[in-house]
Specification:
- This protein has 29 helices and 14 strands.
- By secondary structure, it is α/β, with parallel strands linked by helices.
- It has four domains: 219 residues, MFS general substrate transporter like domains (Growth Hormone, Chain: A); 235 residues, MFS general substrate transporter like domains (Growth Hormone, Chain: A, Up-down Bundle); 44 residues, no CATH class; 292 residues, Vaccinia Virus protein VP39 (Rossmann fold).
- Helix 9 packs across helix 13.
- The radius of gyration is 29 Å and the shape is elongated.
Amino acid sequence: MTGQTQAAPAGARYLPIVLLLFAGSGCSALIYETTWYQLLQLSIGSTSVSLGFLLAAFMGGLCIGSVAFPRLDLGGRHPLRVYAMIEAAIGLCAIVVHLAVPLVNYVYVAGAEHGMPNMLLRGFISAVCLLPPTILMGASLPSIVRWLKATPGGVSWWGLLYGGNTAGAVFGCLLAGFYLLRLYNMTTATFAAAAINFAVAGISFALSTRVPAQAVAPEVEESAPAAVADEGGPAWAVYAAIGLSGATALGAEVVWTRLLGMLLGLTVYIFSIILAVFLIGLAIGSYVGSMLVRTVRPRLALGWCQMLLTAGIAWTAWIIAKSLPYWPINPLLTISPWHTFQLDMVRCLWAILPPAILWGASFPLAVGCLARPDEDPGRVVGSVYAANTLGCIAGALLVSLALVPWIGTLQSQRVMLWTAAASGLIMLWPQVRATKSTGLAAGLAAGLVAAAWLAANMEAVPGELIAYGRRMVINTGKSEVLYTVEGRNSSVAITRWNDGAIEIDVNGHVEATTETYDMKLQRMVGHLPAVLHPNPKSVLGIGFGAGVSAGTFTRYPGIEHITICEIEPVIPPTSTRFFGKQNYEVYRNPKTRVVFDDARHYLLTTTEKFDIIASDPLDIFAKGTAAIYSKEYFESVKQHLNPGGMFTLYVPLYETDLRTIKSELATFFAAFPHSTIWANTVNGQGYDMVFMGHLEKPVINVDEVIARLQRPDYEPVVQSLFEIGVTSISDLLSTYAGQNADLGAWSAGADLNTDGDLRLQYLGGWGINSTMEDRLYREMLKYRQVPRGLFTGSPQHVEGLMQAIFGGMAR
């Protein structure tokens, strides 16, 4: 008895240190999660299906670890010593994963297929890569809580440890997104996180030599025995409630990340901010729940927490749909990314924090429902954590893969609201039956009526948000929204501007318009390689968009096969409905085959080769797009070109800064030393460009090109060019803006975008508010030289073309 009394204060004194150690564990876990998602997407794609498998594998490992670890016979080893070994093993496994994942490519080359076999292969590879370290992560919480006895104070500290881990995760999320991956690369981030694991392991091991194997947390006088006593309800109800709570939390995160991503921009920084805010709410809620569990009846508190979540979900849905889009703030006024991100953080906190706090409070309250002095703390906490994690997996997969594409984001939020109400009903109804309390019954009935009213009064986000995103504040009232649709990966809007132009927007950003300058750019992506290639037969289009670039190839008599790789199934039929005239109904053309897959993954798995590959992807600042601007991806494109083949890539100059465009050029030149650059101007001002890669040093015989365009079977080509104001071959080729031989000097020393860092998504997101398009264009023209040997043919034609190119800067 005396020994126990002496041991308790000694152990309790070190509780803050243990809390900091577990926060460090959470920090490293989020660095890994951010890095692994980026790393594995390079191999298995970035569709919702592949990301769903990644999420299932990551959280599935957490679930397995939290359930399996407490059932291991550890022979009475010190909990902190066991925790130290787990942390060290996480660091080692993470390093192995980082080194092994690139080998995944060989698996695809050997046997990848499309359709369900491909999805199963993605899931298997994700599990193989992620399960070992994530199982260990799942075991960390049950291992460390075994150090604290299941007293009211101990149960409270279990929740505090969970909250501290989540607070560390906030720091890890921001550290990875804004520092480690922005300034360094995935290798640096991985080793930094592993160093944290090793430091936590070392300190934990040293601490285990100074503290008892089990400590008693300090109590407070008002602690209620009910805080650790079963209140008569079934244990399954607690597991069901916390599982449904996890489902609503991750389901809501999926929906709100999608909607807020459109509102704030699609950059990698926005996704880090949204996740960080969500974790901040969980950490605050965990602290609040840990304090409450000492003095309240946990079952009632957990039930009412879920009922309050109905109001929290409705709050966020209302803020995103009816409040934030109309804040009188123009985020485009500043070119400082820090000012923009501060504003984005405030808007995310205002929208997400209330329900996130309630989700965070749910975990310690659920643990408090089941904790008893004679129970193994590891089993109690591990089982609750597993139930919550299983719910998270189910919610994320169900919402992202089924509910959103089936019923949309509005109805999905209603489903989550009713799921939260069901969770509260599961917890409160047994208490009503046991106590026969009319007050409790009336309160529950009132809560359900309120939930019904809140669900009925939810509203969808405005069409202008889907169309214009962060630019909604300056574009509202200038157009009419004709149509919106929400797909599995993207939300699409069709608008008609007051001048009559039709526009297609994807996830809050313009994809294409019928404006003449925009139509010219889209057709240049197709016409430039198709006109210059002597006899193209097979084409691969990356990204459907409005279908205009791909439709260009239907004009060429020799082209027999047009394959289009598109990530979002709702885009081709939508574009065909509103841009059918401009894209020549390419979607319905018998020569056309549309493959719904991530472009990078498709090129990694297909054995086909093409005469032309034309890419019209989302702008570079959009999260995930940098993977199809990397040197390794460009090398993969080269391997899928037939001899004499060409690759065109749309590159915007708007919303781009100097470092970004130089990086794009340097990376393209590194993969395609024989490159030419072509400009599309608006009223003589720089706007966007087409990069064209050639397998061999290009030689453009102007006479041969003119002869082809004069053939009768090329009449549709001539007509297509005429529709965008190109009346001669000189009009098209005079857009020449340089090549590697001259612009390579301008871009020398720029950051290369490689698979190891995906630097461009960080550079592009940093310069998203830039308005330097014409300045960048003029800078490039300063380096442009007379392209000796590039253009050949009769002196008359070549000299005329040189005059068209160099006769005026704004040609």
